[in-house]
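ARCHIVE CARD
CATEGORY: sequence design from structure
SOURCE FIELD: tokenized fold
FIELD CONTENT:
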């Protein structure tokens, strides 16, 4: 049922975003791949998705820290495909430091990219979804949208904000064929987490295996990373007709973290 739908995945040149773009393309969606660069490699990702899944896919550069570029991403998509049916707000960054030394520019960047971008893209996409009477907005939040950890003030604040934004959008659109939900992954092994593993190995003086088991996955009872493919499949489910009455909620994919 997703064949021919147009899906935008922000921050989709890597990790969860790329796997989500692949999962939606496998369901027949045309895809807008996005990041803030404009390299040949970025455009090649879209070309590879198109040829692998037999859909149309384009790369559109837009820096999710900039409100005008967030909104322009939607308008460029509509100009190219005629609609935006699925919006996955995935772009995100991380920075770890105690509040009192947390750099102001890192706070501002995390709030802009991880939270405000979802407001701007949704605001621009909703009128187009209302015009067709069908839409799916999926925000990639985090277990940190539901629980806190020390030294991640900006990330935890932004992700809690994303969960609140998700519920509000869902209520505003209830009954209009448009749903809004958040996927809340625990730890997923992507470049964003690789950096944390390397930093914590140095801090704790542990080897990689012990750092992953005892530090990174300390709060994740399964002691296993979720995979990017599992997150992509969760997004695809929330975009399906089976999920038409699933709105304003969070889907945790966290190995039991938030059951605690
Ligand atoms: P990643 O670093 O692999 O990918 C992040 C993507 O966002 C990249 O494509 C990057 O180019 C893009 N991006 C970064 N800044 C951008 C900007 N200003 N404008 C446009 N694109 C930008 O990270 P990931 O682990 O795949 O994370 C994806 C999302 O999942 C993030 O929102 C993250 O917070 C969330 N998440 C990740 C985990 C995890 O364990 N990896 C857990 C929970 C939630």
């Amino acid at each position: 049922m997703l064949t021919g739908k147009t899906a935008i995945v922000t921050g989709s040149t890597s990790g969860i975003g790329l796997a989500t773009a692949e999962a939606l393309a496998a369901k027949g969606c045309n895809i807008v791949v996005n990041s803030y660069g404009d390299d040949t490699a970025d455009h090649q990702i879209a070309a590879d998705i198109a040829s692998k899944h037999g859909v149309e896919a384009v790369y559109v550069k837009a820096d999710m820290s900039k409100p005008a570029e967030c909104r322009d991403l939607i308008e460029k998509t509509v100009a190219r495909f005629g609609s935006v049916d699925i919006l996955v707000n995935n772009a995100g960054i991380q920075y770890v430091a105690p509040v009192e030394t947390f750099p102001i520019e890192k706070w501002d960047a995390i709030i802009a990219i991880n939270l405000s971008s979802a407001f701007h893209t949704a605001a621009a996409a909703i009128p187009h979804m209302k015009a067709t009477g069908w839409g799916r907005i999926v925000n990639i939040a985090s277990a940190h949208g539901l629980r806190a950890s020390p030294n991640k003030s900006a990330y935890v604040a932004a992700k809690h904000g994303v969960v609140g934004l998700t519920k509000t959008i869902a209520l505003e659109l209830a009954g209009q064929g448009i749903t809004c939900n958040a996927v809340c992954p625990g730890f997923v092994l992507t470049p964003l987490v690789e950096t944390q593993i390397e930093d914590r190995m140095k801090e704790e003086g542990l080897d990689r295996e012990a750092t992953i088991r005892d530090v990174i996955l300390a709060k994740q009872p399964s002691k296993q990373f979720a995979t990017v493919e599992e997150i992509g499949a969760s997004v695809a489910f929330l975009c399906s007709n089976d999920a038409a009455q699933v709105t304003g909620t969070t889907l945790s994919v966290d190995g039991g973290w938030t059951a605690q």
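CARD ANNOTATION: The longest strand covers residues 178-185. The helical segments are 15-26, 40-53, 67-81, 104-132, 153-173, 191-204, 208-216, 228-239.
SHELF: design records, drawer C
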